[in-house]
Specification:
Length: 460
């Protein structure tokens, strides 16, 4: 991550048609879609630090479609809309590819494919039902791989089998964040960094107060990811865990010898999923969703850097690729992951504030999905009646599965995390997972109520 090159902070009181709280990819892409729909729209973005400083700039840079999440989508939006949204994420990848090729946005997008591999016998065959379902709708995004092919494309002897999605790959999400920021400024969007909102007064207009100024806005979008947990209503909708990422020193020759190709996103089937890519400067980046819970909304220094998690992830890196033993780790960072029970983003309005939208709960899958969801957010903020604003994903009021309140959430998450770690170790060793461990893991929040089939209706 380069010098953040801060924009000025907000000074004084201003008015705006739409104000977005959060300068990550959700906020930036939404502003982009707003300008597509209405180039004259008056948009202000308030960012507490610098654009891309949160999860948007800290993630592993994996770009893949929603076809692998069709079951999650179906449970929330119905089968037909799930298919439409999965296809829309493929379109979003093509859109980003074109924007990069035309020099409009910079993101180091490389479409070397997405690989998900089984690393334990218990996970073998896990994709077969999804592949069969996709075939019934004429979609074949995934190639099923046996052991030899899986080990070839992942370059890891630990791989047993898996799937390969060709039209996927990797990017630099921080570079994309900065590029979106600069383009939006050229389009007239006012962006203020180092401007955390310290007081929020609902109403029409709503007042967003910072340390040295305020914004009076008719419409507001809260797009701050895990940091939105400071709002009680949102805190009950998502829970936060730490993720950890490490990157090696530049090792181009060694990566060539191992067979790790540039632009290829690689992940595994464990509950504590590992994900990696070869960066454009020939480092190996590896991350893991640790599952380490965060109490309430208390995001402190541990969330930025945790030496214990760094050791764990580094050990996993060298387990997968023994030839990396002795290779230096140049960078290590952490980041909060806001997780929803549905494993999909949650969109709703604040209680008693119908002009205030929020979008949280990306659950670690976002880079091809945010450009799609941003169409929904933009349409709702501009009162546009279209297929995006009418999507069941665009308004989940009354359909959100809440999570346990604190302190039960933190205690339960800590116990479940230990159970998940036991499961990972035993499955990798080919051993049976005992029923108490399985029972504890079953306590994880999950969306249970299937949605009715999607039927488009006009928004009131």
């Amino acid at each position: 991550m380069s010098d953040p090159d801060y924009l000025p902070s907000l000074r004084g009181d201003i008015d705006a048609e739409i104000s977005i709280v959060g300068g990550g990819l959700t906020g930036l892409w939404t502003a982009w879609r707003i300008k597509e729909l209405n180039p004259d729209a008056d948009v202000v973005i308030l960012e507490a630090d610098f654009c891309g400083s949160g999860a948007s700039g800290r993630n592993g840079g994996q770009v893949h479609t929603w076809f692998g999440s069709l079951d999650y989508l179906r449970s929330v939006v119905g089968r037909n809309e799930a298919i439409r949204l999965a296809r829309a994420t493929r379109d979003a990848i093509a859109e980003m590819q074109e924007l990069q090729a035309d020099g409009v946005l910079e993101m180091d997008l490389q479409l070397g494919g997405f690989v998900s591999v089984s690393v334990a016998a218990a996970h073998d065959g896990g994709w077969s039902e999804k592949i069969a379902e996709l075939e019934t709708i004429g979609e074949e995004p995934f190639e099923a791989m046996g052991r030899g092919r899986a080990q070839e494309v992942s370059a890891a002897a630990t791989s047993r089998e898996g799937i390969f999605e060709q039209f996927s790959g990797t990017m630099d999400p921080f570079k994309l964040s900065r590029s979106l920021r600069d383009r939006l400024i050229s389009q007239g969007v006012r962006i203020f960094e180092q401007s955390p909102v310290v007081e929020f007064r609902t109403g029409i207009p709503s007042a967003l107060v910072t340390a040295a100024g305020s914004v009076a806005a008719n419409r507001v979008l809260i797009a701050t990811g895990a940091w939105a947990g400071s709002i009680p209503q949102i805190n009950r909708a998502v829970y936060t865990v730490d993720g950890q990422v490490v990157t090696t020193e530049p090792i181009p020759e060694l990566l060539d010898e191992i067979g790790i190709e540039a632009g290829r996103a690689i992940s595994d089937s464990q509950m504590q999923v590992l994900y990696l890519q070869r960066t454009v400067d020939d480092r190996l980046l590896l991350g893991q969703g640790s599952g380490l819970p965060v109490y309430k909304d208390q995001l402190g220094q541990r969330t930025n850097h945790n030496p214990h998690l760094q050791e764990d992830v580094t050990a996993e890196l060298r387990r997968m690729y023994p030839r990396l033993e002795g290779v230096a780790i140049d960078y290590s960072w952490g980041g909060p992951i806001d997780i929803s029970a549905s494993h999909l983003p949650i969109i709703d309005t604040l209680d008693k504030a119908p002009n205030v939208l929020f979008c949280v709960g990306w659950t670690g899958t976002a880079l091809a999905q945010i450009p799609v969801v941003a169409r929904m957010l933009a349409a709702r903020l501009l009162d546009v009646d279209d297929e995006w604003s009418r999507s069941p994903l665009a308004d989940q009021s009354g359909r959100i599965t809440t999570v346990f309140p604190e302190p039960f959430r933190y205690i339960g998450a800590s116990v479940v995390r230990k159970a998940v770690q036991r499961r990972v170790v035993r499955e990798r060793a080919g051993k049976r997972v005992a029923w108490p461990t399985r029972a504890l893991i079953s306590l994880m929040p999950r969306y249970r109520e299937p949605a009715q089939e999607y039927v488009p209706t006009e928004r009131s």
